[in-house]
Amino acid sequence: MRIRKIVPLLVLGVVLNIPMPASSHNSGSANFVEKKVVYSTGFRISALAKTNQHKAREPILVDFLIQNVTKKTLTLVETFPERDYEIEAKNSQGELVRLTARGETLRNNKGANFRVVGSKVKPGEQRKDTIDVAQLYDLSAPGVYYLRASRRIQKLNSDSWVGVETNTLTITVVP
Amino acid sequence: LHFGNPATTPGITFSRSITVPSGFTGETQWVQVIDSTTRTLTPNGGSMLTLQGSGVLDTTYPYALGSSTNDSPGQGVNPCDFSDVSANDSFSMWLMFKPPGTGSIFVPLRKVNWSWSGSGGRISACNWILSTSNHSTNPTDADSTDFPTWSTNVTSLTFH
């Protein structure tokens, strides 16, 4: 094993409040915003549920896909899926759903990063992460829920970052 | 506060060069254990918050696959709401190997210890300076027969 390089780079940066793009519903203006964001980062992200109906207190598995839509290899920064994708869950009244203990822990320690890996993603390559959303949010009550995630991605040829949002998933929890 | 930039120049990069004898095959993986970590955050006008742990898995098992990987650990802080931040982490990274076949397991090949630390403080409304910094420089790896062990995952640690 060789430690190929270790750089003397220790930086005190600032956490920026990045404005999130508009929701990616199917309105013309929203699509415009999404295309603009995808173009600026080179990545497109989406969410896909294996099934839309789930039994209460059972895992709710959602696949999060990220694809390099450019013609050149890009670097993707990864910690772990539950951190990389900031998921928002709302009920049918539009209220935010209560976090589980695990969800609270992850949210409260958002700034503590240990595994931070830069990995190369080839043109057209797609990565998939599966997250059990029921581990993060209390989705035990039967009803309809709306899930959406955002991921912070570095802009192309820039040091700045932007939040890219997935589509919204509708999940039904049955008794 | 972060060690390196994962998108451009990671804090540390690990790579392997392995020769498997003719007629044999196998796969490798990377596993990282945090030997110790202490992170502190001080909110404006508040008491210092501390996250501490030792002998914990670094986030995922394995840490990575492939012939190389990297790490750029850091501690984020809202620049306007906090006055001080610090991090002091020590790690052990293992290169593991598994031969093919039912019942085979990953065994350690090599191990390297490394560390980084730093601290910073707010000097005006939302502006900060780096106060101290330190890190391993080209740490030496060695053969290893001891397996990585851990008590919990670092993602379960919280600030108190």
What is the tally of helical segments of chain B? 0
Beginning-to-end CA distance, first to last residue of chain A? 53 Å
Number of strands of chain A: 13
Strand content of chain A: 35-45%
Strand share of the residues of chain B? over 45%
Instruction: Note poorly predicted spans of chain B.
Output: none
Whole-number mean pLDDT of chain B: 97
Radius of gyration of chain B: 18 Å
Helix proportion of chain B: under 10%
Written description of the protein model:
The complex is a heterodimer of chains A (175) and B (160). Chain A is 15% helix and 42% strand. Chain A contains three helices and 13 strands. In chain A, strands 4, 7, 11, 12 and 13 form a five-stranded mixed sheet that branches. Residues 5-10 and 13-30 of chain A have low confidence and may be disordered. Chain B is built from no helices and eleven strands. In chain B, the strands form three sheets. In chain B, strands 4, 5, 8, 9, 10 and 11 form a six-stranded antiparallel sheet that branches. Chain B has a two-stranded antiparallel sheet with strand order 1-2. Chain B starts with a strand and ends in a 17-residue tail after the last strand. The chains are: A mainly beta (175), B mainly beta (160). Chains A and B meet through β1, β2, α3 and β8 of A and β1, β2, β3, β4 and β6 of B. β1 of chain A pairs antiparallel with β3 (12-15) of chain B, so a sheet runs across the interface.
Please outline what is shown here.
The complex is a heterodimer of chains A (175) and B (160). By secondary structure, chain A is mostly beta strands.
Features:
heterodimer; A: 175 residues; mainly beta; 5-stranded mixed sheet; 3-stranded antiparallel sheet; 3 helices; 13 strands; B: 160 residues; 6-stranded antiparallel sheet; two-stranded antiparallel ribbon; 11 strands; 0% helix; elongated
